[in-house]
Amino acid sequence: MNIVETRNLAKYYTFDSGLRVEALRGINVNIEEGDFVSFMGPSGSGKSTLLNIVGCLDQPTSGNVFIEGREIDYRNSSNLVRLHRQTIGFIFQAFNLISTMNAMENVCYPLYFNRVPHSRQEKRATELLNLVGLGDRMHHLPSELSGGEQQRVAIARALANNPKLILADEPTGNLDSGTGKKVTDLMRKINREQGVSFLVTTHDHEMARTADRVIKLKDGKITD
Ligand code: ADP
Ligand code: ADP
């Protein structure tokens, strides 16, 4: 079964001046459940746009996206909310933790939105923070954690609601290479042990080396 399929996906931006930017020009990909796939390509090649559309953070101009065989209806907000709550987790380059919440509270946040009872939130968050090796940092604020530790909190948060798919946009982009490798290895371990599929955009060759598959993009098209 494919976790993600895109058909003739295109995204154009048009400006008042008449200028048109073709960010994606007919993307067809099939990602099998359990795969760890990395998207590589120069800046501006469309990697973030593709990830944002698959993650329902943005809409395509034309074409179709299927998650677990079901087409995303970008006009149906309850469809998008359900995908965000139950199926897809996100990891960002800048970590995007809530700065006033400690590690535990950041991981509890998506559980709270899914109306998980308070006692179960803390139990689940504790398990996840232990899984990412931060059992001794649970009550630290993001500002009290290193970049690598913050990204590990973000990984725990992305896993909170047991997603089938994690989308990670340049997850090692703000980390030095040694820390980046540890984050890459952690994501790969979660992929192998829990069967979560990963789509990762990256410039990082270490990340590409660890992936099952590398898809190269250039000027909004797949090059091989
Ligand atoms: P990458 O992630 O590979 O760096 P992006 O997907 O961010 O590439 O961008 C692809 C192209 O689309 C670029 O030319 C970029 O300038 C353009 N683009 C991205 N987002 C927007 C936007 N919100 N409005 C207009 N153009 C955009
Ligand atoms: P990255 O290289 O990490 O993909 P970008 O610099 O391409 O980051 O994009 C950062 C943000 O700016 C994204 O949210 C993207 O949608 C937006 N963006 C990129 N290019 C443009 C553009 N030409 N006009 C407006 N927004 C843009």
UniProtKB/TrEMBL annotation:
CDD domains: ABC_MJ0796_LolCDE_FtsE
One Pfam family per UniProt: ABC_tran
GO biological process: transmembrane transport
GO molecular-function terms, A-Z: ATP binding; ATP hydrolysis activity; transmembrane transporter activity
S-adenosyl-L-methionine as UniProt keyword: no
Gene3D superfamilies, A to Z: P-loop containing nucleotide triphosphate hydrolases
Matches recorded under PANTHER family: ABC TRANSPORTER ABCH.1, IMPORT ATP-BINDING PROTEIN
Protein name: ABC transporter, ATP-binding protein
Species: Methanosarcina acetivorans (strain ATCC 35395 / DSM 2834 / JCM 12185 / C2A)
Phylogenetic classification of the source organism: Archaea, Methanobacteriati, Methanobacteriota, Stenosarchaea group, Methanomicrobia
